[in-house]
Amino acid sequence: MASLPNLTDKFRKVIFNMAIAHFNVFLMINLMLATMGRFVSSASIKQKEDLVEKVNSLNIDDVVEDMQNFLKHMKNGTIAEERSFHYNRLDPSNNMPGANYMGTGLSTMVNLLQLGKVAYEFENSVFGAASCTFCKASLMFIKYYLDRDKELEEVVADAKMLCRGVMVISYRVCKGLVNLFTKEVMTVVKTSNQTPEQMCGFMFGEACNNPENLDHEWRPWVPPGGPLMEASPVTKYNGESISILHISDTHFDHLYKEGSNAECGEPMCCREDSGEVRREEDRAGYWGDFRKCDTPLRTIEDMYSHIASTHPNIDFIYWTGDLPAHDIWNQTKEGNKEIVRATARQLKKFFPHVPVYPALGNHESVPVDSFPPPSVSAEEASMSWLYSTLSEEWGHWLGEN
């Protein structure tokens, strides 16, 4: 077994190769948009199509200007005084205080978000032109502050104010996303030397007219290996089988609570803070819940116990990550380190003599999907805390080589 520092270096190289494809700023936009969409059942397909067409025709500069004007009204107290309104299913953007101050661009985008078009596109992997518009508007919002040499604190404060004013997701979720992602996104937009059109084109491809950019023609760095091995002659199959257990996406939620609200209106529920349970059928189950909830410890351990007892001859385990819960707006480095440790020890407990070959998922990092290359050395951006934890917990499985 290698010493811990050397082992950590080896892990960094191996894990970097698994994770290099995750461009944090692009995937952050994905997550922000996917989290923001909510579906209104009364919205017809024709309504959605009309809204998408309207969004596609928006001038992004006008949308950003609408955002800034809306913020001005929030800061001077105008919107705070507008608290009586009637719910309008045909135009959800008017169902909030301050809707009259949004302007055409911002109100159109809010309308589409509330009708759930963006969430539908992302959940079904249909990256349409409307989502491209949202992407460019989000990056242009950041660029507005960078062009004026604004400090990070002002960007965060204004983004949180928009969270409170444009009520498409709960304030605590929106605030958490802003706290976790704003600094990274600002850094990437500032240092990447690419326009919002180029960045969104990289993510959405043809749906975003994908402007040509040589910087997008890149190859990941691969550490040098030893000499190529000669292929061994194929031997005749002797009839013996190999038993492989593949475990993935357990998403262990240590805060899962039986009987809590499984219909909380947020991207993740089934916790003590998920709000009041209004109907008996909305209560979270004992073993878990098929709604927007993750997995309680008892379910994971019962699954492992059943597998171990019914399949005693497992030869090895593929373990392909995505260990933490989906509350990406509320995660910390220490919390995710503990999830990595706890889940690794679960496998050691139930399969003590079975070799395990683990790999990272996109949910282990904080923020989620953030795997900066080694050239990013800033302490707050580095993932060395994660790689060191993995070397401690996975080292006895993978060994020196």
Detailed description of the structure:
The protein has 401 residues and is mainly alpha-helical. 46% of the residues lie in helices and 3% in strands. The chain contains 13 helices and 3 strands, in the order ααααααααααβαβαβα. The chain has helices at 4-19, 24-36, 45-56, 60-75, 103-115, 117-123, 129-146, 152-165, 171-191, 196-204, 297-310, 333-350, 384-398; strands at residues 244-247, 316-319, 356-358. Strands 1-2-3 form a 3-stranded parallel beta sheet. Strand 1 (244-247), helix 11 (297-310) and strand 2 (316-319) form a beta-alpha-beta unit. Helix 4 packs across helix 5 (103-115), helix 7 packs antiparallel against helix 10 (196-204) and helix 12 (333-350) packs parallel to helix 13 (384-398). The chain starts with a helix and ends with a helix.
Q: Nearest-angstrom radius of gyration?
A: 24 Å
Mean pLDDT: 75
Widest sheet, order of strands: 1-2-3
- End-to-end Cα distance, whole Å, is 8 Å
Shape: globular
Structural class: mainly alpha
Strand content: under 5%
The H-and-E topology, N to C, reads as: HHHHHHHHHHEHEHEH
Level of helix content? 40-55%
- Residue stretches low in confidence (pLDDT < 50, at least 5 long) are 1-43, 81-95, 117-127
Largest sheet properties: 3 strands, parallel
Total DSSP helices: 13
Kindly state the number of beta strands.
Answer: 3
